[in-house]
Design a protein that fits this description.
The protein is built from three helices and eight strands. By secondary structure, the chain is an alpha+beta fold. It has one domain: 2,3-Dihydroxybiphenyl 1,2-Dioxygenase, domain 1 (Roll). It has an eight-stranded mixed β-sheet. The two termini are 26 Å apart.
């Protein structure tokens, strides 16, 4: 089994501060990590849930894939992040199984991780992010 756990559930939002406030009031959630990911054109806030996260994402530019997703489908579930021990091995395995990669090779992600995205086409309509933790990289 290449998947080790759910890393995060990503939710696209227009107003990150309002979303954080809502999750704090509704669930008592706190932000464990916050980062602007320039390469993806997003700002994220990670709310810890056991060993996983709720990732609230907001676009930092109109060209961001998240901005386009919100424009097309509105706010809501954007993608699922699956934690894997080796992002390259998992990416190769998914491609061999017929997945359509967005990233042709693993690349740096937020909080020092290594990531690769898989297109929803060929993955039953779900945008998938493979996430490899890199201890000591935070």
């Amino acid at each position: 089994m290449l998947l080790t756990e759910i890393d995060h559930v990503a939710i696209a939002v227009r107003d990150l501060e309002a979303a954080i406030d809502y999750y704090q009031r509704a669930f008592g959630a706190t932000v464990e990590h916050r980062e602007i990911v320039v390469s993806d054109g997003v700002e994220e806030a990670l709310l810890n849930v056991a060993e996983s996260y709720i990732q609230l994402l907001t676009p930092t530019s109109d060209a961001s894939p998240v901005a386009k997703a919100i424009e097309k489908r509105g706010e809501g579930l954007h993608h699922i992040g699956y934690r894997v021990a080796d992002c390259g091995v998992a990416l190769d395995s998914m491609i061999a199984a017929g997945a359509t990669p967005i990233d042709k090779a693993p690349r740096p992600g937020s909080r020092g991780t290594t990531v690769a995205f898989i297109h929803p086409k060929g993955s039953f309509g779900t945008l998938i992010e493979l996430v490899q933790e890199n201890p000591g990289a935070h």
